[in-house]
Specification:
Layout (H helix, E strand, L loop, with lengths): L10 H13 L3 E8 L3 H13 L3 E5 L5 E3 L2 E2 L3 E2 L1 H8 L3 H14 L3 H6 L6 E2 H14 L6 H21 L4 E8 L6 H14 L9 E4 H35 L4 H16 L2 H5 L5 H14 L1 H15 L4 H33 L3 H23 L1 H7 L1 H6 L13 E14 L3 E16 L3 H15 L1
Antiparallel strand pairs: 1-7, 1-8, 2-7, 3-4, 5-6, 9-10
Length: 444
Amino acid sequence: MSEIRGRSISDTQKAEDRITAHFGKQNMLALIVPSGDYDSEKKLLSFLQIYPEVELAVGLSNIEAMSGYNLTDGLTPRQFAELADLDYEIAQILYSAYAVNEENYSKVISGIGQFKVPLIDMYQFLYQEVVLGYVSLDEEVVKELREYNDQMTTARMQMEGEHYSRMLLYLDLPDESPETFEFIGTIYREAHKYYPRDSVFLIGESTNALDLSTTFDNDNLIISILSVVFVIIILTFTFQSAGLPILLISVIQASIWINFSWPYVSNQGVYFLGYLLVSSIQMGANIDYAIIISSRFLDLRKDMPKKEAVIEALNQGFPTVITSGSILAVAGILIGFFSTDGATSVLGTYLGQGTIISVFLVIFVLPQLLYLGDGIIERTSFKLKKMEPFIREKGKVQVQGRLHGYVNGEIDAMVDGTITGDIKPIKNKEDAMDDEQSEEGGQD
């Protein structure tokens, strides 16, 4: 799938293109694991570095510090003394102080000679002791120690937190592809060999794409079903037919499928949110074009044969459909043409394209469906029982039959004659009582 880009390219995008052309494009992932276990981290990085898909794997445990030692390599007092150019006795005292500070008293009792401390921890502890005045060193050594401490502190802040450590993986894979998604699973499997399953996290563009790809089908299915169901319910009660909404939905849904078959044919990417937005707009807005033709057909079908009704409905609705559809299509295409943002450009392009397809199907396909499905529409039609209107007449009214109501006072009798005045029929005794109370209140 190609990169999603707009037709117009901004200066920022041009600069990014030049950088990519010169340096190449990197796919970086951040692997988050529990901190503190430098041996497991180093082994994991070593295994991941073997894979040809990994260009570079960087973590605190495989960053070289000095003289072939990595930042997290464990050093004995003698090794540290040689590395830091300290007396061995001072190094032993320093290690003993570190053990006491970490409450690791067993090392002090059993002998400090074989006690190993990560290089980064020992250097930062030494610098802390120098700053506090517990250890005195030459000014030149202190200056060099300060530089090392600053660099190590920066590295630790970038790669290690209070509870988690971060490893950076640079992959020789595109951001989104089946091979990338498969290798993400490989990374998780390797990491789970050293860390608990629920404590390993992988973050990056590729993992975002994988999450969307795994949730897209289900989300899209739910949204599509709900959209269709609610539109059908609304149209069913509007047209009082169960068959007609199916015909209308089929036309618009077909236009959506045709519209979004183009990205697959052209190998062009579409954002997940953009697909949902355009689909919803097509279903909600373009259905109006089908409603216009259908409503006119139903009205005309009462007075003429279905063939003539279809032709006349199309003639009457054509200007409205073309005008409204052209406005939406042109607006979408202009957004797609002039927008420099890839997501916005693609959204506008497919909105305009989808509207054109919808208008085409409404004009050329829907009339055929109405003609062929006229019998289905009639057989699935129904009538809703309407509420009887509340009748109130004033003036001269001819009455023949029983009347229960008010005529300058209540009357309940068989009347055969003419009544002049205000006539207000009463359906039940509760209505009569309410009216009497309202009149008494008005007299007070």
